[in-house]
From TrEMBL:
This is Phosphonate ABC transporter ATP-binding protein. SUPFAM superfamilies: P-loop containing nucleoside triphosphate hydrolases (SSF52540). InterPro entries: AAA+_ATPase, ABC_transporter-like_ATP-bd, ABC_transporter-like_CS, ABC_transpr_PhnC, MetN_ABC_transporter-like, P-loop_NTPase. Keywords: ATP-binding, Cell membrane, Membrane, Nucleotide-binding, Translocase, Transport. Residues 15-254 form the ABC transporter domain.
Length: 254
């Protein structure tokens, strides 16, 4: 009698995109793109302004409906999911923006606390009355981005690099499984851009997060990505592990 063969299960892709097309009227912003992202991968989407990076990123959590193709994230069929299911998915998908999107008049720790809203179904008011455990967790998140000493300072008074660190702490507070970052360092000077990328890559690795991060600077992409995916006028023109690549290898993107 033959014994049972046990094959270890391959970890499923966290993100699977097949033939994704997104049109705005006659304009094809994302053109027949397929892409898989494995658990824990840090993928950088590279491309000139207008190449479709942000549109692709928004299609991943259902902020844009797709015109054609399929998008699966954490097992959710995003292209076909009803709004309630998309809302559930978005609690597991952190988003970091170029413009930080903090509430400037609130303190850093209060901004970080708002990251827990989707996870805990708390009212959108009264962040000052959150329990002590949440407050401790928020302070720990700020500590992880090196800003424990700014916890009670108004977020709007911090530098750009510090504000993006607070935004990263807010995302940690959300306890997501996937992180989408749209040009997270585009408004920072080169030195701050490098240190925020360092931080982002480090905390995402510590959390085991799967990341898709758009960047338009080649040097940053080569320095930090596991894999580079290049877009040119909405089409995927590059998809390679970043190790060993140099500027000449990304010419198709520019
Ligand atoms: P990137 O992030 O790479 O700069 P985008 O995804 O923002 O590129 O834009 C891709 C193309 O889609 C551009 O030509 C842009 O003008 C167009 N586009 C993006 N969003 C919209 C929109 N909401 N309505 C119409 N056109 C849009
Ligand atoms: Mg963009």
């Amino acid at each position: 009698m033959q014994g049972l063969t046990v094959t270890p299960e391959e970890p499923a892709d966290v993100i699977a995109v097949r033939g994704l097309t997104r049109r705005f009227g006659d304009l094809v912003a994302v053109d027949d793109v397929s892409l898989s992202v494995a658990p824990g991968e840090f993928v950088v989407l590279l491309g000139l302004s207008g190449s479709g990076k942000s549109t692709l990123l928004r299609c991943l959590n259902g902020l844009h409906p797709v015109s054609a193709g399929e998008v699966e994230v954490l097992g959710t069929r995003v292209h076909a999911a009803p709004e309630a299911e998309l809302r559930r998915l978005r609690t597991q998908v952190g988003f970091v923006f170029q413009a930080f999107n903090l509430v400037g008049r609130l303190s850093c720790v209060e901004n970080v606390l708002t990251g827990a809203l989707g996870r805990l179904r708390l009212p959108r008011y009264g962040v000052r009355s959150y329990g002590q455990n949440l407050r401790r967790e928020a302070l720990a998140c700020l500590d992880r981005v090196g800003l424990a000493d700014r916890a009670f300072q108004r977020a709007g008074t911090l530098s750009g690099g510090q504000q993006q660190r607070v935004a990263i702490a807010r995302t940690l507070m959300q306890r997501p499984r996937v992180l989408l970052a749209d040009e997270p360092v585009a408004s920072l000077d080169p030195e701050n851009a490098g240190s925020v990328m360092d931080l982002l890559v480090r905390v995402c690795a510590e959390e085991g997060l799967t990341v898709v991060c758009t960047l338009h600077q080649v040097d940053l992409a080569l320095g930090w990505a596991h894999r580079l995916v290049g877009l040119n006028q909405g089409r995927k023109v590059l998809d390679r592990p970043a190790a060993g690549m140099d500027r000449a290898d990304v010419m198709d993107v520019y």
